[in-house]
Specification:
The chain has 65 residues and is mainly alpha-helical. 80% of the residues lie in helices and 0% in strands. Helix 2 packs antiparallel against helix 3.
Length: 65
């Protein structure tokens, strides 16, 4: 991956990580309804799903489509 592609990817990852979105709303309501301990698997799913999405984008899967 060249640096011309790396900088926009890092900018997207940063903005996506700090912007409230539907995942944060789901986590907030899950925590309020079920408690912190039962929300941990949901938090991990959001975290690893985001990492997976960034990795797939970084490996250039978008070029296939």
């Amino acid at each position: 991956m060249s640096t011309t592609n790396l900088y926009p990817l890092l900018a997207f990852a940063f903005v996506s990580a700090i912007t409230p979105g539907p995942n944060n709303i789901l986590l907030m309501s899950s925590g309020a309804n079920h408690g912190f301990r039962k929300t941990i698997p949901h938090m991990l799913g959001v975290y690893f799903g985001f990492i997976f999405m960034i990795a797939v984008i970084g490996f250039g899967v978008a070029d296939i489509f």
